[in-house]
Write a structure and sequence with these properties.
Length: 457
């Protein structure tokens, strides 16, 4: 019986497990995660953050699904070493698990030695939020939003009292207009990309005052051109988001609270951490803040890979035990079209993987790569093909979508609709083929356009 081991139960890892089971009814499939939940939607975390949905609503595949498909899901274990030669993975327990939730049948407690053996391994550990090296980035009240635990920490800090399981809340906006609240908590979001804007809109919904600081001169620079970004900005300003475009963050301003200082005077050795008070911009302006959310992009999580920055082999292999094989790593773990790494029987998929020099770190890509990896691991032949990235989302009820070439400078052939509330641009190459599009306010024909675009690739 073949032993399949998958590190990471995100969409890449879980889809791979499902695909393996389809093709191998007997094999032993084990999914490891350092988090406490079965597969959940990271995309919906902003809705969870503002209390629109509860934790249960985030879950995509529950424990029963894993039981039904005979997939062993082990939660709360953090892999800290991989021995590729001897085909073993070593782990330690991560956060304790609340066994009352999501029918925890299998968890870290059942593993006594934390060692897992495999015949075939999938590396699906996802990505990490990037935190720029700005002074004060370690202060209390500085956050990123990647996991359900990150969302819970933000909820706690901002005392978002409506973020309770399965309580549908009344938004603090009325028909898109902001309701004024006395002394609201204030948050600065650093980065005006997809995630930053979704989180900003969610916090506005929860009654927080939000300022978004963006280095670029427009929002969603990867997805929108100037016209599209202008319309989206107007929509978001209408619900109360404040923007500081073309601005860079100089430092995070913080202070140790009087209470903490008093405590430190009686408790010896207590380490004090300044708490966020504001954000100083390069222009000299200081924005008051109770918390800061970094939304400055993600990077593949290579913490289990050999340290690329050094030629010292002892240091290189400290992170990841290997003897005579080397795994090819660039921005991500390099894979071929079968999602196989440079070591046979070791696969990578999702945000952590890099295929053909690219890694978009998006859901659909991770899901398809997981499917291809799972199929090949189980002995079938499947090949991954890069597709132009496409995004469709709703920011504060506003539909925004973009795909492929967005032609920021307007140099290509275009079909354009631009009204007060809708902006649609279809980009074509010199042969009249659709190569990209932008839609703000109405995305009803987005899927049709993307299909046309892909069939023409
Ligand atoms: C707030 C938010 C909003 C998003 N919105 C969109 C969107 O609108 N559209 C879109 O396309 N994409 C969006 N994304 C990106 C999308 O969620 C990711 O591309 C996708 O989740 C990647 O899936 P993955 O399986 O590769 O990795 P992940 O989902 O990150 O899963 C990785 C798994 O590996 C586990 N793991 C990591 N290290 C270890 C270890 N050492 N030991 C054990 N387990 C480990 C983690 O616990 C986790 O379970 C969003 C992401 C976030 C955070």
């Amino acid at each position: 019986m073949k032993k399949y081991l998958i590190i990471g139960n995100g969409i890449a890892g879980t889809t791979a497990a499902e695909e393996i089971r389809k093709n191998d009814t007997d094999g032993e499939i084990t999914l490891l995660t350092k988090e406490s939940l079965p597969l959940y939607s990271r995309i919906r975390l902003p809705d969870f953050l503002c209390g629109k949905i509860g934790e249960k609503d985030l879950i995509i595949k529950n424990q029963e699904w894993h039981d039904k498909h005979n997939i062993q899901l082990i939660r709360g274990v953090e892999v800290d070493k991989i021995d590729f030669d001897n085909k073993k993975v070593f782990s330690k327990k991560s956060a304790p698990i609340d066994k009352t939730k999501n029918s925890e049948k299998v968890d870290s407690d059942t593993q006594d030695n934390g060692i897992f053996e495999f015949d075939s391994l999938l590396f699906a550990v996802g990505s990490k939020s990037f935190i720029p090296s700005i002074k004060g980035n370690e202060f209390g009240g500085v956050f990123t939003l990647r996991t359900v635990d990150d969302a819970k920490s933000i909820i706690k800090r901002l005392q978002i009292d409506n973020a309770k399981d399965n309580i549908k809340t009344t938004p603090k906006t009325n028909n898109g207009k902001k309701i004024v609240i006395d002394n609201p908590k204030e948050v600065v979001v650093i980065g005006g990309g997809l995630l930053g804007l979704e989180a900003a809109a969610a916090m506005i919904h929860a009654g927080i005052k939000v300022t978004v600081v963006e280095f670029c001169d427009r929002l969603l620079p990867r997805q929108l051109d100037y016209e599209g970004a202008k319309l989206l900005k107007e929509f978001l300003e209408n619900i109360g988001v404040i923007f500081r475009l073309k601005e860079a963050t100089e430092e995070i301003v913080g202070k140790i609270s009087e209470r903490a200082e008093k405590l430190a005077s009686v408790i010896k050795g207590l380490k004090l951490k300044p708490q966020v008070k504001g954000v100083k911009l390069k222009s000299g302006d200081i924005i008051k803040a109770d918390a800061v959310l970094f939304s400055a992009g993600v990077r593949p999580d290579l913490s289990l890979m050999p340290d690329q920055s050094t030629t010292d082999l002892d240091i290189q292999f400290n992170a990841c035990a290997m003897t005579n094989k080397s795994i090819s790593v660039n921005k991500g773990v390099v894979v071929n079209e079968r999602m196989e790494t440079s070591i046979p029987s070791i696969y990578a998929a999702g945000d952590v993987a890099e295929y053909d020099g690219v890694n978009f770190c998006i859901w659909q890509e991770a899901q398809e790569q997981g499917r291809v990896a799972g199929s090949n691991m189980a002995g079938k032949e499947a090949a991954y093909k890069n597709v132009p990235p496409s995004n469709i989302l709703k920011v504060a009820g506003i539909s925004v979508a973009s795909a492929g070439e967005i032609d920021v400078d307007g140099k290509m052939e275009l079909e354009l609709i631009s009204t007060e509330s809708i902006y649609k641009k279809i980009v074509k190459d010199k042969n009249g083929k659709i190569v990209g599009c932008i839609m703000v306010g109405d995305t009803s024909d987005f899927n049709k356009i993307v299909k046309q675009m892909r069939s023409e690739v």
